[in-house]
TrEMBL record, chains A, B:
<keyword id="KW-0175">Coiled coil</keyword>
<dbReference type="InterPro" id="IPR036979">
    <property type="entry name" value="CM_dom_sf"/>
</dbReference>
<comment type="pathway">
    <text>Amino-acid biosynthesis; L-tyrosine biosynthesis; (4-hydroxyphenyl)pyruvate from prephenate (NAD(+) route): step 1/1.</text>
</comment>
<keyword id="KW-0827">Tyrosine biosynthesis</keyword>
<dbReference type="InterPro" id="IPR008244">
    <property type="entry name" value="Chor_mut/prephenate_DH_T"/>
</dbReference>
<dbReference type="GO" id="GO:0004665">
    <property type="term" value="F:prephenate dehydrogenase (NADP+) activity"/>
</dbReference>
<dbReference type="InterPro" id="IPR011277">
    <property type="entry name" value="CM_T"/>
</dbReference>
<dbReference type="GO" id="GO:0006571">
    <property type="term" value="P:tyrosine biosynthetic process"/>
</dbReference>
<dbReference type="Pfam" id="PF01817">
    <property type="entry name" value="CM_2"/>
</dbReference>
<dbReference type="GO" id="GO:0008977">
    <property type="term" value="F:prephenate dehydrogenase (NAD+) activity"/>
</dbReference>
<dbReference type="InterPro" id="IPR008927">
    <property type="entry name" value="6-PGluconate_DH-like_C_sf"/>
</dbReference>
<comment type="pathway">
    <text>Metabolic intermediate biosynthesis; prephenate biosynthesis; prephenate from chorismate: step 1/1.</text>
</comment>
<keyword id="KW-0560">Oxidoreductase</keyword>
<dbReference type="Pfam" id="PF02153">
    <property type="entry name" value="PDH_N"/>
</dbReference>
<dbReference type="InterPro" id="IPR036263">
    <property type="entry name" value="Chorismate_II_sf"/>
</dbReference>
<dbReference type="InterPro" id="IPR046826">
    <property type="entry name" value="PDH_N"/>
</dbReference>
<keyword id="KW-0520">NAD</keyword>
Amino acid sequence: MAEQSSRALDALRDKIDVVDKELLQLLRRRLDLVAEVGAIKHKEGVPIYAPKREASMLAKRRTEAEAMGVNPQLIEDLLRRMMRESYASENDVGFKRVNPDLGPVVIVGGAGKLGGLFAQLFTLSGYEVRILDQDDWDNADALLKDAGAVVVSVPIERTEAVIQRLPQLNPDCLLLDLTSIKQAPLAAMLKAHPGPVLGLHPMFGPDVASLAKQVVVVCHGRDEAAYQWLLQQIQIWGARLHEATASEHDQAMQLVQAMRHFTAFVYGLHLKREHADIEQLLQFSSPIYRLELAMVGRLFAQDPSLYADIIFAQPDALARARHYLARYQEALALLEAGDKAGFCAQFADVAEWFGDFAQQFRNESANMLMVANDSRSG
Amino acid sequence: MAEQSSRALDALRDKIDVVDKELLQLLRRRLDLVAEVGAIKHKEGVPIYAPKREASMLAKRRTEAEAMGVNPQLIEDLLRRMMRESYASENDVGFKRVNPDLGPVVIVGGAGKLGGLFAQLFTLSGYEVRILDQDDWDNADALLKDAGAVVVSVPIERTEAVIQRLPQLNPDCLLLDLTSIKQAPLAAMLKAHPGPVLGLHPMFGPDVASLAKQVVVVCHGRDEAAYQWLLQQIQIWGARLHEATASEHDQAMQLVQAMRHFTAFVYGLHLKREHADIEQLLQFSSPIYRLELAMVGRLFAQDPSLYADIIFAQPDALARARHYLARYQEALALLEAGDKAGFCAQFADVAEWFGDFAQQFRNESANMLMVANDSRSG
């Protein structure tokens, strides 16, 4: 490169360094201000996630950006990333306790990851939390005495047995579970306990930094009035509630979660048996191609029994998996016949059935693919 | 909320507004400075994407952030998003022309999306570009006269026929294609033209805002020295080159692209036949659950014949699809037998085969899921 150009580049890069340092200082200031907002909200018991306020703030910033010739999507993306940071740090402040009179909260399986997350949230909200884990059953009566709420958070396959094993609880104690199927655990809880009963399914992994914007599915059991405090408490933690019947919930989980896990498992098995060379495959990686691989590979970084439980425990698992097989064979027949027109016709049928959702899904995935591309460094 | 708290909140929000306005001004300044860097780079023909410089800049910022108690990942994510914006705007400046003596570049299928993108890039780099589309064949001789390079960018199923239809090109003219399979088109080009031949597969869709960090697969045909200028030109556009044989390429595409498309098609068909209610399913959506749905649904927002071409044109499509069927049946047998232990054993086998990649994929997808959650507004 010509020497003059090289000197000009160095000068520009120095200026960018200065801008970035100012940027860092602004970031620090913004995080501090938002933390102060959080502290007030917590004192008042206001949910940390305020969708309307967030939307109106973003709309304002977009308008301001446009006036300055800055892509409004850029400022929105940057602010959303900063908000994630702020939500995550809200946990440090603690939360308002909605039900000051509640007895101890006993987390059965509280040494597990999800149970541990809820133990932490209850503790941060000022409740007395007790853990009843595998080795604590000799001590169960003492732990459960005077309990205000009992949260069952154990692997799916043991949930019903654990519920049956519980000693008689106080009649006004709330019994709830966090299992990812809902019909069987809810029935078991209603049978085991005559008092308030609630089925919850937190739709997120235990490693989330915050509950902000996450969804908790609510399946009512018995005596809704007795657990309104908990639903309010969960919203203060930042989550959105979605009410459904246990069977609606289980069917939805079967259609998306269990069958997607199952087919991803088959795909992983397929890649292994075809002697695929992952390292070589990644060399070709477009963002979407890499994401497709990641959606399969991510499964295998996790506990097999977790997936086995989710797949095997679904009431309709076998029937649905057989249906899927029939559809695969149908599509394979098109391929065998070289029937491209038939394939396109079926494709168009499904596309019509998806309707506007197809484009919506395409847009959502496009945004994620851009982020995936941003983080490349190779 | 208490009046005092409410007043305190308003005051804090005013301060956040002020910070955000300063942030916008900094953004504007940074984008302008980076644009100046881009202008110098273009003049000098330096690639717009400089991995090492980018990595060292990010490392510096992370250290500075840590010193200020700011999460280093936060500043890295924000800067990467800003860099995407800068890369996208580089196209406005134009690129250095590597081969000043080249005759016109003729894009066969230049009215299509991908052909159009390359027509734009060549034009921005100062080459004379001519489009030869479906209706221009009567005029083909005139369009191709004196051509320095002919780029074939038509649907897979027509690629070979189009190559055969080309009139005799100048002996030193470069003939290349952009098709997503490589063995058949490359063979057809080598047969049709005695001069320089090159097979490329741009691993991205035509809607990318910039080629920065994208991958272009290079399958050498004949007379590499004659097209070094083009490989250099593509790198100036920001892309990374990956060399592979045509058969390596086709096998990789079959294993990931074609079969993933095929199984996603089957999944869409399955959801339709099971009368899934997408709107209801989305109510339950965790980020991963939503992404799983999106990876299926996104397919159906696109052209069926594009997917039919990709799936049906792969040389081993049928054999691989049959292999997959066998593995599905094997997994289904485990489900039918209620053999959870067998499932876990198979799972562990595949996990071992994935090795460290499984965790890497999990981390990558976790980051994308966080971004997906950031953009929720419901």
